[in-house]
């Protein structure tokens, strides 16, 4: 153990700043793997002079009290780690450097949002008034993650106002051990895929649909095969505006015109959502009766028995709210598909 601590493990006593410092990022001699190719203009003799080797046999010594203790390591020069004027900067971490467990080479540490990027997301949404969809497309962060960052940042600021302690040192230590996505204002770094197609429940079954060779079968036709109300893929992705922008680009529209059309489309979408929300509130106020008491408010709504549907599981019925037991674990139920549409 002392031999490893005095040899390859000595570099972990002073971790490299701005790096995850996983075991797989170093070779068996304690040298950073991605820094080997950074030595420019040095021959093998000069590289050997940059590294002072430690005597592997003398890994223990006896102190004045006669106890065996690990020998103090000699000063080691880390070849290719310190930045100099004649050497390029340290390369970015590769996938090989993001393996924290040497025996599990299939696991890779995923990038997390840096504190600067979290602050930028909060400022754009809360201070500048940008929509979650716009911030997600601009910074390459999924919309659900943008919403989570805004909520947690608001909670953090509320705790600061109340004078509650916040573990900034702990957060800094954890972020130092994980790869993070930096915030670059003029050239944002994509954090994750933001336009993945969600799996619709109607598409989980296998369907064999014969189509003639002369027919022009599109994605819209394929969606109708699964479900009559199923929209095509380009209308079900989270960021449909990106698909439309790409279509306008292929049509030859210039960038200024594409931006103008996109802003007009966003304004129409906002107005339509406000109109739908207003109609929903009006219908709810018309159909629901409210009775205020001293302690609580009672709400009454007329429910029709037929609203539960033939199966009794319609979302319009009262059963959808209070729950209906599933039949998947009931004895005698057939759990495999009995037909192929």
Structure write-up:
With 341 residues, this protein is mainly α. The chain contains 11 helices and 6 strands. The protein has helices spanning 2-6, 44-49, 115-127, 132-139, 143-161, 168-176, 219-226, 233-236, 240-250, 255-287, 319-322, and strands at 60-62, 68-70, 112-113, 180-181, 288-292, 297-301. A hairpin with a 4-residue loop joins strand 5 (288-292) and strand 6.
Number of DSSP-assigned strands: 6
The helicity comes to: 25-40%
Major sheet details: 2 strands, antiparallel
Order of helices and strands: HHEEEHHHHEHHHHEEH
List the helices and strands and how they pair.
Blueprint: H1 2-6, H2 44-49, E1 60-62, E2 68-70, E3 112-113, H3 115-127, H4 132-139, H5 143-161, H6 168-176, E4 180-181, H7 219-226, H8 233-236, H9 240-250, H10 255-287, E5 288-292, E6 297-301, H11 319-322
Parallel strand pairs: 3-4
Antiparallel strand pairs: 1-2, 5-6
Helix pairs in contact: 3-5, 9-10
GO molecular function: structural constituent of ribosome
GO biological process, one term: mitochondrial translation
Pfam families: Bot1p
Give a concise summary:
By secondary structure, this protein is mainly α. The protein contains eleven helices and six strands. Helices cover 35% and strands 6% of the residues.
Question: Which tags fit this structure?
Answer:
single chain; 341 residues; mainly alpha; two-stranded antiparallel ribbon; two-stranded parallel ribbon
């Amino acid at each position: 153990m002392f031999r490893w601590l005095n040899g390859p493990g000595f570099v972990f006593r002073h971790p490299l700043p701005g790096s995850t410092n996983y075991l797989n990022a170093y070779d068996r001699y304690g040298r950073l793997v991605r820094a080997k190719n950074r030595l420019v203009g040095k021959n093998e003799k000069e590289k050997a002079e940059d590294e002072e080797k430690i005597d592997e046999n003398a890994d223990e010594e006896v102190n004045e009290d006669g106890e065996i203790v690990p020998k103090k390591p000699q000063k080691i020069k880390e070849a290719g780690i310190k930045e100099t004027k004649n050497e390029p900067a340290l390369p970015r971490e590769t996938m090989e450097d993001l393996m924290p467990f040497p025996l599990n080479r299939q696991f890779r540490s995923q990038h997390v949002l840096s504190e600067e990027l979290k602050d930028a997301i909060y400022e754009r949404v809360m201070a500048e008034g940008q929509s979650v969809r716009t911030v997600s497309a601009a910074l390459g962060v999924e919309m659900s993650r943008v919403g989570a960052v805004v909520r947690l940042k608001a909670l953090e600021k509320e705790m600061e106002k109340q004078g509650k302690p916040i573990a900034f040192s702990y957060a800094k230590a954890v972020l130092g051990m994980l790869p993070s996505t930096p915030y670059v204002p003029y050239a944002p770094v994509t954090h994750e895929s933001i336009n993945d197609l969600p799996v619709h429940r109607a598409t989980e079954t296998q369907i064999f649909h014969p189509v003639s060779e002369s027919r022009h079968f599109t994605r819209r036709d394929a969606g109708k095969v699964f479900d009559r109300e199923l929209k095509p893929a380009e209308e079900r992705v989270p960021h449909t505006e990106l698909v439309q922008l790409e279509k306008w680009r292929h049509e030859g529209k210039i960038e200024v015109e594409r931006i103008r059309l996109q802003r007009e489309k966003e304004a129409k979408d906002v107005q339509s959502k406000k109109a739908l929300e207003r109609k929903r509130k009006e219908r709810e106020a018309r159909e629901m009766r409210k009775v205020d008491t001293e302690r609580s408010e009672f709400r009454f709504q007329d429910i029709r028995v037929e609203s539960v549907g033939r199966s009794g599981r319609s979302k319009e019925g009262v059963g959808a709210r209070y729950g209906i037991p599933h039949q998947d674990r009931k004895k005698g139920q057939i759990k495999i598909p009995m037909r192929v549409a």
